[in-house]
Amino acid sequence: MYEKREWLWRSKRRTVSQGECILIIDDEQVLLEGCRQVLEEKGYVTATADNGERGLQLIRELNPDLVLVDLKMPGKSGMEVLQEIESTHPNLVKIVITGYSTVSLAVEAMKKGADDFIPKPFTDDELSMTVEKGLKKRRLILEREALMKEQELIRRNMISLVSHEMRAPLAATIQYLEVILGGMAGDVSQEAKEMIERCVVRLREMLELFGRWLKLATYDPQKSAERFTAVPLTDMAAKVLEMRKPDAQEMKVHLSLEAPQDLPPVMGSRGALEEVLDNLVANAIKYNRQGGWVKVRLLERNQEILVEVADNGIGIPPEHLPRIFDEFYRVDGRRNAPIKGAGLGLAIVKKLVETHGGTIAAESRVGEGSLFRISLPKPQQTKAERTGGWKPV
Ligand SMILES: Nc1ncnc2c1ncn2[C@@H]1O[C@H](COP(=O)(O)OP(=O)(O)OP(=O)(O)O)[C@@H](O)[C@H]1O
Ligand SMILES: [Mg+2]
To answer: What own/partner pairs with CB < 8 Å and gap ≥ 24 does 87-93 have?
Structure first.
């Protein structure tokens, strides 16, 4: 019987180009046959299985769009089937069939990944409506998957374009210009020299931008996490502020650091965490005002370590706040015009913070200032272990 059904399934799959496939798993033959007829009349391709094992086998072989699973079956239970599907085919829409007396089971099934439930006995219309609702969800899932695949393809093409076709000729051009500037290609007038020097500066900026973007696009969080060590944040923050002192002095912005003596270290990459804080401090200085301030505060709260960077600079309008962590996003070109930047810093910050299992949020008021708050998970250890056990690097 199953061979025949599978043959029917396969032949229909071939002929119905967009035919959506529904698998029904139930030990009651009457229900199986009834559902099959109703759904096939609606134009769906169906397959049936009268036990959990067989159902799972058909899922592997046929990759259906939606599965109806009876929760009460002899042998492998509907709940077990559901759990297995959830781990192997998480995007398959799962609807559980329950008896009226087992609604609580349906609730449990929903917690375990079921998308919907239909209580027995149900009418043809109730079945059709529940299936159609489930398939709407399936279409959305497939659309999102296709979009993500397309984005990934664009990203990969962009990476190869930037790293091979753009960086190499740019670097070669800079070298030629430097040869000309060095006088090795004959005399160059002072006026031409100044122009070429400006070209070199702009080309170098472009090369640096490509380098930063490439680093962001090819960043491998897993590799980075493998090299995590205990990082003492207070030392690191002091170093970042020291390095940014010249920029702050130029803007007449006052820098300060506040941290408790016994702040535990966080597990992470020192280089990455330095880059995170440096980007935030650099922003807080450059989007500031003459005589403004930037405060870095480190603190311990419950299971997290907080890193806060506050300033009393120009602030960010509320409508821009949700997008400032996007790649290449800058607030209103004209407002930022005199301030240089590519809109990459905060995208890098977000990615690095998330690699550390942390989160970042921003608050701001135009004309009053901004606050960026990072939350990083605290290593699981006692205070006694902390003072004796850790060997920060
Ligand atoms: N502390 C801040 N105060 C006011 N605006 C800010 C602040 N930090 C970020 N912004 C706004 O968010 C935008 C995005 O910041 P981001 O750091 O990603 O890019 P950028 O500073 O423009 O360039 P990059 O960091 O790549 O050199 C900035 O262009 C700026 O408009
Ligand atoms: Mg920046």
So the answer is: 88/59, 88/60, 89/59, 89/63, 91/138, 91/141, 91/142, 91/145, 92/59, 92/63, 92/64, 92/65, 92/66, 92/67, 92/138, 93/65, 93/66, 93/67, 93/134, 93/135, 93/137, 93/138, 93/141
